[in-house]
Amino acid sequence: MSVQPYDPAEDGAEMSFRQKMSYTDYLRLDDVLKAQLPLSGAHDELLFIIQHQTSELWMKLAIHELRSAVESIRADNPRPAFKMLARVARIFEQLNNAWDVLRTMTPSEYTEFRNALGQSSGFQSHQYRAIEFLAGNRNVAMLAPHSHRPDLMTALEDILSRPSLYDEALLLLSRNGFDIGDDASRSRWRETRSENPKVTEAWRAIYAAPGNDWHLYELAEKLVDFEDYFRRWRFNHVTTVERVIGVKRGTGGTSGTHYLKKMLDVELFPELWRVRTVL
């Protein structure tokens, strides 16, 4: 039995775009799809470029959501932040899945174009740095790779001049009557904060009786969800790099997997992990 070809125009679908905005126009696909410019003749360089470009697009969205979540918590309205943080966790799930595609590239295929990368490296991603700074990992030494770009330095310094996502979560605890010790009076947001036993105790009280402060309990779990997926992303990064280049030094001069494994020990919200032991 033959089936007649379907013509969407018969159902009213717009088919002529000479004077109208099209899908390609709205998404500026001509610009996006021209942004992949391999520097070698290697087949897998296009995969490498697209994987990293799409990751940067997802990071742009993550930054948008994190900024909005910070504002929501600061305004004593954390509930919208729950949706935003859930979305950030899903974004990092997407970023995790991207490593699965990149891992289809073998070491011999990567060596065909690795020299074309020069000194460029993922650890130089200013958006990744912004995510870390927004979340609360404020290692100012990591500003250095961006010092040649005053615009990026200004944007990152602006993030460092304000409370992070976790800082705002702790200040919310304080405004809800919980004793968080020195974190209630911090003002040097640029500095790395120290783990605080009083914050752990505050989270313990919230987890011990979730019904009393459900909004704080749910905020805690959304933060843990985000860091859970963020940790998985870091781990998958290490595994992918080790699978492709072993223990060679990174193109940007880092110690490669040795450097990346150090990053696995960094905790964004330490007291939220510690509280699980003391409950």
Name the features.
single chain; 279 residues; mainly alpha; Methane Monooxygenase Hydroxylase, Chain G, domain 1; 12 helices; globular
Structural topology:
Elements: H1 23-27, H2 29-33, H3 45-74, H4 79-102, H5 107-111, H6 126-135, H7 150-160, H8 165-175, H9 197-208, H10 214-245, H11 257-263, H12 270-278
Helix pairs in contact: 3-4, 3-6, 3-8, 4-10, 6-7, 8-10, 9-12, 10-11
- Give Rg in angstroms: 23 Å
Strand fraction equals under 5%
What assembly state would you assign to the polypeptide chains in this entry?
single chain
Report the total helices: 12
Cα distance spanning the termini: 67 Å
- Biggest beta sheet attributes: none
| Helical percentage | 55-70%
> Tell me, what is the CATH class?
Mainly Alpha
Given the C-alpha coordinates, what overall shape results? globular
Query: What is the fold named in CATH at topology level?
Result: Methane Monooxygenase Hydroxylase, Chain G, domain 1
Global mean pLDDT: 92
Low-confidence stretches: none
Order of helices and strands: HHHHHHHHHHHH
State the total count of DSSP E strands: 0
- Secondary-structure class: mainly alpha
